[in-house]
Give the backbone structure.
Amino acid sequence: MEIKLNLEDVAEFVTIVSVFESDVNVRSVHNGVFVDAKSIMSVIGLDLGGTLITDINSDDEDEVLIFGEMMRKYEVKNAD
């Protein structure tokens, strides 16, 4: 899912993704840097001015659905 974070969002974002047992990653679209989304220092080090891609590495369909719902707050809305 494509998301946007500002510096004020990072602590809340990391707290949210940390509740999941599965690995959660986030990647900068701008420079391709890929980090553990549960690490506040790693997330702060990303290009927060640009779009980020986040995903959860889980085979649990319920966990994936819940993750998607929780990420909607940060989701990039495409302007049509």
